[in-house]
Amino acid sequence: MRSKSHKHQAVDTHVRASKFHPRNRHQGRYDFPRLIQTDPELGNFVRINAHGEQGIDFADPAAVKALNRALLKDSYGIQAWDIPPRNLCPPVPGRADYVHYLADLLAGSNSGVMPKNKLIQVLDIGTGANCIYPLIGQSEYGWRFVATDINAASLKNAQAILDANPALAQQITLRLQSSPQAIFSGVVFDDEWFDLTLCNPPFHASLAEASAGTQRKWKNLGKQTARTAANPGLNFGGQDAELWCSGGEEAFIKRMIGESALVHTRCFWFTTLVSKSASLPGIYAALKRAGVQEHKTITMSQGQKQSRFVAWTFLNPAQQAGWRKVRW
User: Which residues form the signal peptide (predicted)?
Assistant: First the structure.
């Protein structure tokens, strides 16, 4: 990997080596000429490095946001996407992968046939200011979404994105989770059912741990500078509950599993991303204690990075068959 510290010499490398889901629109390297044509603002951040390659500085949050905006507009027709400074700026290709593997999960529960798209309803836990999963899932598969967050300011920004995309907004509902310790309680109503839930949980146990992890990332990439040392929250950003919670991702997911048992008939597949493989044994033990009928771990390879999500259901075979008959 080329490790240039000058801010105009950074080139995307994770996409170059990617092995995304076959339906993922972001295969291979970014097509910067096309993206700039789609969203000319991106051109302000694209530079040619010493090897004659186009790229952006991933240490510059404005550049990362401009790239995301262009990708969302070019691939999904998303207009006027924006997020406040320091909020989590999600890497679009990886987020799209989760959505496509969720579609496979549904098809796998329906004899390999994708259920009728317009009937699928998905709960996005912690949608953030970016609202990325509902935007991609609605655009790619026509799913309806309920997107929740504990931060009213994040939901206000997500609503502004929806207002700029009225066709998508009709299928996406935002709900404030008024209790920071609750996950499903208060946002899953008695008269609704979800075919999927998804979540990108906070994976650090404290702000200090989150900052240390970011510093290690910069050092491993050969891009640690005085700038990144002074402000480790650069790149894809993130703050507060977006990055950390007490006990980290394992504690959060265990709490999610325990609470999912209280709404076990309201959802077919509960799912969550799991960043750390070391979290899996504790998660599996929690699933066993909760008495789930079935659980799966789906691995996603994205270049040098390996990600995964865990899915579980409380529905027995007869209940699953009834769900398919009524909803799919």
Answer: none
